[in-house]
Amino acid sequence: MLTESELARYSRQILLPDFDIRIDRFVIEDLTVAEGLLGAERIIQFRTEADIRDGRVYLDSDGAFGGGDEFALVVEAEPDGDVFDLDLSWQAPQGGFLAGMVGAQEDLAVTLKGEGSWTAWHGDLLAVQGETELLDFDIYNESGQYRLCLLYTSPSPRD
Fold it and tell me: For a tag site, which of 19, 57, 94, 96 has the least CB within 10 Å?
C-alpha cells in the first residue's frame, strides 16, 4: 500500500511528462475556410502558448472562428506550488464552424469555471445546446484526485 506522499508523487508522474514541452507562441491568423466545407466561408483567428516543464503545466489558448464562434481555455497546474486553475469557454452558434465540427444542430455553449488551488479546487461545468441543458457538473480537484457531481437530472428547456 502506498503512503499519501508516495501516492502524490506517483500522481504527479502520471499527470506530467518527464520531458519539457514549450510553445512560446503559436498563431493562426486570417485562415480562410472555404465555403462548402462547413457552411459559409469563415476567417479563423487562433493563438496558443504552452509551457509544460519542471512540474508545472501552463496552457493559454483562444480563438475566433467567424460567425460568433469563440473558444478560450486556460489551464495552470503546479502541484508542488499548490496552483490549479482551469477555465473554458466554448461558444458555437448554430451553423457555425465549431458547431459544425461537433455536429451540433443548435447553438452550443460549454463553460467551465473554477476557483481554488491544487489542494482544494471547485469548478462548474455547464453545457447548453439550444435551450436545453445537456449537463451541469460540479468538479472537484483535491490534491490530484478528481470528483464529478451531477447536478442535472433530466432534459428540459432552460429558464
Answer: 19
The domain ranges of the chain are 4-150
Residue 133 CA neighbour count, 13 Å, CB half: 14
User: Within a 13 Å sphere around the CA of 124, how many CA atoms are in the beta-carbon half?
Assistant: 4
Q: 4-48 pLDDT, tens per residue?
A: 666 555 554 556 677 889 999 999 999 998 887 767 888 999 999
Q: Which DSSP string corresponds to 13-56?
A: HHHS-SS-EEEEEEEEEEEEEPTTTSSS-EEEEEEEEEEEETTE
Q: Is 118 exposed, middle or buried (0-12, 13-18, 19+ CB in 10 A)?
A: buried
Is residue 129 classed exposed, middle or buried when 0-12, 13-18 and 19+ CB atoms within 10 A define those classes? buried
pLDDT digits (tens, 9 = 90+) for 56-75: 999 999 999 888 899 999 99
